[in-house]
Specification:
Mean pLDDT: 75
Number of strands: 6
Distance between the termini: 27 Å
Order of helices and strands: EEEEHHHHHHEEHHHH
Strand content: 5-15%
């Protein structure tokens, strides 16, 4: 997504990604206009087919290939820090949506991002001890040791967040920063979505009765990447302004 025009009611926030300071635009109470980049669309036919048939291992492999191809890194077979920081948002969100849809919410980048945070991690900050806690939680580690990729559980009964694993920590070295990095980029991409889309998501989830005006606000906030310094105050203020 390319930012083309924004209202003057946007706020600028500073984010930390490892040792790198990153300036990110946080959504204000008026919508921004984004230009869709037609070249960023990917052919997700094979990924969809694999997920529909629950061929989870093939879907995992295809996920990495799609990301590598979109980043023009297919020849090298891995993404460095710059690649992850500039990973195409449409590609990342599209792949995550498919994983969430066909696994009924068990797998996908967003699921992994939430788990990373739940075990004490901060998106965008990779630390070995948090990676180990994540590995224990999602089943990438057993008895204190990282499992070989071929020994992972490619079934619908795998622990939540177990897949995709080709972009994860410990079991794959294909993506710099693994879940911490992908989770940061996913969260950053969701902040770039026009407010009109965010508002529609809210209204779709809420019956708008007077006694439950904010009925699903927390759920929606989490879905779009809530953090204490943004979603905690930002979304309630946003919806108050939109009402």
């Amino acid at each position: 997504m390319a930012l083309s025009q924004c209202s003057d009611r946007l706020s600028i926030k500073n984010w930390t990604f490892g040792a790198i300071g990153i300036v990110s635009i946080a959504l204000g109470v008026q919508s921004c206009q984004f230009e869709s980049d037609p070249t960023s669309k990917i052919d997700d036919t094979r990924l969809t087919q694999h997920l529909q048939s629950q061929n989870w291992r093939a879907a995992d492999a295809e996920t990495l290939q799609l990301i590598l191809k979109r980043s023009e890194r297919a020849a090298s077979g891995w993404l460095d820090r710059s690649d992850v920081e500039n990973l195409d948002c449409n590609t990342l969100l599209q792949i995550d949506r498919l994983w969430e849809q066909y696994s009924q919410g068990r797998f996908g980048f967003e699921q992994q991002r939430r788990i990373w945070v739940s075990v004490g991690g901060t998106v965008g900050e990779y630390t070995p001890d948090i990676a180990e806690k994540l590995g224990d939680r999602v089943g990438w580690r057993t008895q204190g040791k990282w499992r070989d990729y071929n020994d992972l559980d490619f079934s619908a009964q795998a622990p939540a967040g177990h897949l995709p694993a080709t972009t994860g920590n410990g079991v794959s070295g294909s993506v710099w920063g693994g879940v911490a990095a992908i989770g940061w980029r996913l969260q950053d991409c969701r902040r770039q979505i026009p407010i009109s889309v965010l508002r529609n998501e809210y209204y779709a989830d809420c019956t708008r009765k007077s006694d439950d005006r904010r009925c699903h606000l927390k759920k929606v906030a989490e879905r779009w990447g809530e953090t204490p310094d943004w979603g905690g105050e930002g979304l309630p203020k946003l919806f108050a302004a939109l009402d």
